[in-house]
Amino acid sequence: MKKNDFLLIGLVLLIAVSVMGYHYLKKDTGPGKVVIRVDGETYGTYDLSEEQTIDIQGTNILEIHNGEARMSEADCPDRLCVHQKAISRDGESIICLPNKIVVSVEGGEDNEIDAVAN
Amino acid sequence: MKNRAAYFGVFTALALIFSYVEMLIPIQFGIPGIKLGLANLLIVIMLYKCGAKEALMLSVVRIVLAGFIFGNMFSIIYSLAGGILSLAVMALLKGRGSFSVTGVSIAGGVFHNIGQLLVAMLVVETYKVGYYLPVLLIAGVITGALIGIVSGEVLRRLKNLTLM
Question: What fold, for B4-157?
């Protein structure tokens, strides 16, 4: 390999790191909204910027804290949704299959890799 | 000179097989769109052995055929954008003579990804995919370097072989 090859590698990596840094430092677009759907129908829309606890049909409890939404209670046996990490980015969702509840974020921080993900 | 068509056929067949082999590799890199680009090995070798025109022809034929066999219309468009841009940059850098095969291949890998990202931006009509750029740049460097090193070794061993 020649010296220029390494210069090329360095340049590309530098660009990559600076773009990453730019996205990292750029201010968040502000918290979006969480939409709760039960059995396909919209149950309610809630602001991510507001601290709140939402009771969903008495089966699940959604907690919004620090701009993130997290399922804190569920009456189903496996409680997969409770173990899922908190969501805040556009397009992320928490799904509780037994109770047919879908919680998704809309218009939040840009998701890093959704548009190209087929 | 008279073997031109035969050599071109062999290269096309090899490139197609490489596309197929690559499809069989079960490793996912966690991010869609990142792959080794084994077929580009043939493109790089063709570029050095014959020239930009032949490499372009091989690349286009390979992409269209592989697209019809393994992919769909979209994969053909994505690959064509990446393949043509990547080849243009590689031909340019090779012509300048200040880069080794590895460097040329790295530039090819990076611009292959950039070309595809540009098409993705047009198709999805969003600039959000720009987030994806750093990952693709780094992936391009790594895959380009791997392909470049292998191409360099192959070319060293094929020194005496003159094509077309």
Answer: Arp2/3 complex 21 kDa subunit ARPC3 (1.10.1760)
